[in-house]
Fold this sequence. Notes:
This protein has ten helices and no strands.
Amino acid sequence: MQKWAWRLINLAALLALCVVLLGGWTRISDAGLSCPDWPGCYGHMVLPDHPEILDKAQQVYPETPIEHHKTQLEMGHRYLAGGLGVLILGLALIAYRMRNLAGYPVKESYLLLVLVMVQALFGMWTVTLKLYPPVVTLHLLGGVLTLTLILYLRVRIRKLQQPATQERAKVTRLLPLATGVLILQIILGGWTSSNYAGPACQHWLSCNPDSEIQPDFVTGYNPVAVIGPNYQGGLLPVEARAAIQIGHRLGALIVVISCLLLICRLYPYKAFRMEVILLPGLLTAQLLLGVLNVVYAVPSHLAILHHGLAVALLVLLLWIYSRLSFAVKENQDA
């Protein structure tokens, strides 16, 4: 049974990564409302590319023009998310069978199942509430937490197969801080994206230095908005969007500081040489992409890369956690 748990958790980790990345692509491509109903698409679980069927679907939803490539992207995201849900259900059933085994993460497996069920609800509300920004942001948060919890479970299940009998490397306490700050920054990025605040600042450093636009943080970070309108394209005034963009930049600065502190703490240890090289490299690339997104007004290909690198940074920090869970305490360099 442990072998099945190990196989399922590895497959779930891979699928969760694909779901998060594809979800970002769906969001950035404005494909979220390409299927105005849920769970199907225009009344079909697979919308056929047939003129008569497309015409009938268009008559039912005249306000939503059918773009077939976007409907395929949206439904592909839903299929992958559904497949991930099935794997997580399997992990919960295995946890129930293994509930008497000491050390098996039973409660965490149940929590993961509850999380993915809530995530499915937010996926539905994202469509039915027409990209309501708080729901879109919470949906992104749910995806990130699902990936994080799956990778955490992977470490716990691996410990059952490969017990860490030697002393665990107590290298740093900065890792939970850096991971938590990064997750908060991803949430800020989701709020920026859901409110279409990316192009609100024309300058990569000082936002709008040549205009009289004054950032409105109260409106920009008001978590309650009117339910009902279609939020695709955003409804907030430019002052509020500029405030959201500035907040996202401040969050990036905090992420850089926390990760640099982590790098300095890991640097003396030979076992973490690769991570010490990769982490600043990813940070530099992410900052560069952030600047380029401002300079070129957030083109979709740069936005997708920016999203992908944020996920890569999270996976790297979780990988470091995995290494710390099994590494032997090593001597520092002289």
